[in-house]
Design brief:
The structure is a single chain. By secondary structure, this protein is mainly alpha-helical. It has 2 domains: 84 residues, Orthogonal Bundle (Endonuclease Iii, domain 2), CATH 1.10.1670; 110 residues, Endonuclease III, domain 1. It is built from 13 helices and no strands. The mean pLDDT is 94. Bound molecules: iron/sulfur cluster. Iron/sulfur cluster binds next to helix 10.
Length: 216
């Protein structure tokens, strides 16, 4: 199999950027770093379609760390209940809000080290925040990014960290900002985990379809 080049990656990224202009979650919360951070934490093990209305409803009562930290736990649990794991997620959001207040005066920090030190913030969440708010584009690797990069033949990696390193080497810098947004949309709409829509895929001619057994 031919080794992918930065030119291959640029061609694919150009097509995906034209195909997926926006990302619903980014659009919904891009004006407020705290609300985006909370939405990303809420979206763990939930779809964006489920997360967005729940998060919007939550921000009517608790748009800031101070207000979220002061919300009664039962109220918070009831508000996040529709997306599941409500007890764990309510606890996580209150810990996160308390940490922001105690360590950062209620502001979302702008460095990788400070973000990763927050409760509930792993590499994927930190990279999303750095890319969207702090002008430090990073590749946030979730299941969609990991799967599609592998199918394209761009990576042969086991962990999200390895995938992040491989993609950062391959994809030219001017596209890094958009990788998570376009790959997540592509993974939700076309390159689904089971039975991907290869017949409708705008990047099919550039894809090695590694490990794809039953495309549609
Ligand atoms: S051709 Fe198929 S496997 Fe490759 S990116 Fe498109 S949908 Fe995914």
């Amino acid at each position: 199999m031919r080794t992918p080049s930065p030119q291959d990656a640029s061609t694919v990224m150009d097509i995906l950027r034209r195909t997926y202009v926006t990302h619903p979650m980014h659009e919904a919360f891009k004006h407020d770093s705290f609300q985006m951070l909370v939405a990303v934490v809420l979206s763990q093990r939930a779809t964006d379609a489920m997360t967005i209305p729940v998060a919007k409803n939550l921000f009517t009562l608790a748009p800031t760390p101070q207000k979220l930290a002061n919300l009664p736990v039962k109220t918070l649990e009831n508000m996040v209940k529709p997306i599941g794991f409500y007890h764990a997620k309510a606890t996580a959001l209150q810990k996160l809000s308390h940490a922001l207040i105690a360590k950062h005066n209620g502001k979302v920090p702008s460095t990788e080290v400070d973000l990763l030190a927050l409760p509930q913030v792993g590499r994927k969440t930190a990279n999303i925040m750095l890319t969207l708010f702090f002008n430090t584009p990073q590749i946030a690797v979730d299941v969609h990014v990991h799967r599609i990069a592998h199918r394209l033949g761009w990576t042969n990696t086991k962990t999200p960290e390895e995938t992040e390193r491989a993609l950062t080497k391959l994809i030219p810098r001017q596209y890094i900002h958009d990788v998570n947004r376009v790959f997540v949309r592509h993974g939700q709409d076309i390159c689904r985990p089971l039975h991907p829509w290869c017949s409708r895929c705008p990047i099919a001619r550039y894809c090695k379809r590694v490990g794809v057994v039953s495309p549609r």
